[in-house]
Amino acid sequence: MSPSDLPLLRRIVTSHDSKGISKIESDDQVISETTPIAPGISIAPIWKIKDGLPTGNNNTSDDGAKRQVEGLVPANGANVQITELAPGTITPNVLSQSLICIFNNRIIQWQHRTSSLDCNFLLAGELVLVMEDGSETPLNQIGDSVVMKGGMHLWKNPSSTKWCRWMTVLMSADPVVINGEALGPMIK
What we know:
Layout: E1 9-16, E2 22-30, E3 33-35, E4 38-49, E5 78-85, E6 90-91, E7 100-103, E8 106-109, E9 112-113, E10 116-124, E11 127-131, E12 136-139, E13 145-149, E14 153-156, E15 164-172, E16 176-178, E17 181-183, E18 186-187
Antiparallel strand pairs: 1-2, 3-4, 4-5, 5-15, 6-14, 7-8, 9-18, 10-13, 10-15, 11-12, 11-14, 16-17
């Protein structure tokens, strides 16, 4: 059961029979699970690719959502997931309040970066993208999208009453390189 007020998620996976005729392999609810180190955040795995692109996933019957990956992005693959944020929650939110500090009379929350190209799509509620430069961009229309190219950022749900939900397709990528220095994955 989803911990939010959002509808349950459904995932349909297709495949082929022995004659090459396409069919439905599975049609199930996807359970959104809370993360133990990040209160107010739930993740629902949709599919993970670990064997590179193009993938061999079309020739296997294993459930890609159950594949274990280290971190958010497989080293040579992709991760498709649904993220839900409780009202007023910020991510990354690793034991939330301990990661907030004051700098130049401004509250600074911890941000994160992955070595990936991420396509994010708002599915329900509202979301605010906060970049390292302090800019805040609201996503408030279903279908609003963000292409994140290895940038340091955080997400926050500005609502005091409603959960928000978005889908992310994270594809492994080389780290951003600025002045010869690679900007690898980090939380700061």
